[in-house]
């Protein structure tokens, strides 16, 4: 997440032409392509950096911003807008300001910047960082703390119960360092939640199928079933049909940032007919068949 010199990534000078950029990119992309480097994390990281560098430097407008503002190139438009707005303000107040006057006043406001010499020292917010955190569904069933390493610094965060797959949270001030006293950027963490459980999740609700033997379905009885955090005993009504659904209120997933509140668990019964019948069992079924 540290600042990356895109020119160094592609191995080209800052005077490189568009043709040079394209040539360097193609050469490195072939070298570090995942298909040619299976299960190589270093090559995978390098391939991502190469693509990122190419996306910026191959775009003339973005390259100009990058050459001017470096790691803060994404803030270029905000910087220029602030400059133009300030200039308009002073022009409204008095028509006697020269360009040099504007440079002096605006430069003092933004940390002594001298536009005439091209020195840029305006205060800017640092670069925002983005990261993906992979978790198992069981990891977000309850609040828990986790330590992340960002830009060689350890950050202790609390992951709220009920966070969803693809959800993004912001950790304020843990992005890139601000410029000339400006505020630090923020860290945005997107969650990639894998589900290897027997339960299907839909927001706060959980869904699962439970096998039900023929005899219990016909005669009724008790059945122990799994919930996400333990077992419960259910009473099966006589003559329960295949596909019957029941709802266990409050046995679903935690509601995000709503302590003590849970969704529901929906169970679908799947009738299992007996196999490998004995001769005696076959005879009894024949008798039942005649009775029906």
Which properties best describe this structure?
292 residues, 8 helices, elongated, three-stranded mixed β-sheet, Helix Hairpins, 3 domains, HSP40/DNAj peptide-binding domain, four-stranded mixed β-sheet, alpha+beta
Give an overview of the whole structure.
The structure is a single chain. This protein has 3 domains: 6-117, DnaJ domain (Helix Hairpins), CATH 1.10.287; 129-194, HSP40/DNAj peptide-binding domain (Sandwich); 200-291, HSP40/DNAj peptide-binding domain. Helices cover 33% and strands 25% of the residues. It has 8 helices and 11 strands. It has helices at 6-10, 18-32, 41-57, 60-69, 76-93, 99-109, 214-219, 279-291, and strands at residues 129-136, 144-150, 153-159, 168-171, 187-194, 200-202, 205-213, 221-227, 230-236, 245-248, 265-272. The protein has a 4-stranded mixed β-sheet. Strands 1-5-4 form a 3-stranded mixed β-sheet, with no helix packed on it. Strand 8 (221-227) and strand 9 (230-236) form a beta hairpin. It starts with 5 loop residues before the first helix and ends with a helix. Residues 93-120 have low confidence and may be disordered.
């Amino acid at each position: 997440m540290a600042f990356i010199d895109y020119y160094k990534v592609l191995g080209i000078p800052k005077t490189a032409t568009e043709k040079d950029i394209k040539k360097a990119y193609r050469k490195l992309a072939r070298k570090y392509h995942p298909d040619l480097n299976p299960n190589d994390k270093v090559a995978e990281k390098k391939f991502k950096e190469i693509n990122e560098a190419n996306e910026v430097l191959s775009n003339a407008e973005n390259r100009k911003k990058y050459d001017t503002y470096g790691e803060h190139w994404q803030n270029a438009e905000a910087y220029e807008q602030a400059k133009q707005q300030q200039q308009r303000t002073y022009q409204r107040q008095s028509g006697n300001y020269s360009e040099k006057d504007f440079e002096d006043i605006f430069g003092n406001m933004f940390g002594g910047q001298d536009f005439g010499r091209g020195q840029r020292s305006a205060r800017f917010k640092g670069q925002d960082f983005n990261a993906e955190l992979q978790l198992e569904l069981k990891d977000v069933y309850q609040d828990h703390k986790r330590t992340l390493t960002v830009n060689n610094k350890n950050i202790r965060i609390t992951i709220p119960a009920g966070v969803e797959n693809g959800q993004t949270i912001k950790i304020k001030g843990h992005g890139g360092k601000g410029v000339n006293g400006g505020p630090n950027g923020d860290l945005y963490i997107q969650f990639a939640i894998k589900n290897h459980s027997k339960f299907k999740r839909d927001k706060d609700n959980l869904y699962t199928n439970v096998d039900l033997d023929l005899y219990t379905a016909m005669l009724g009885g008790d059945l122990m079933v799994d919930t996400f955090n333990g077992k419960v005993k259910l009473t099966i009504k006589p003559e329960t049909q295949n596909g019957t659904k029941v709802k266990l209120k409050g046995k679903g997933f935690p509601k995000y940032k709503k302590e003590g509140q849970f969704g529901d668990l929906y169970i679908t019964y799947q009738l299992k007919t007996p196999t490998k019948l004995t001769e005696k069992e076959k005879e009894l079924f024949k008798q039942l068949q005649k009775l029906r």
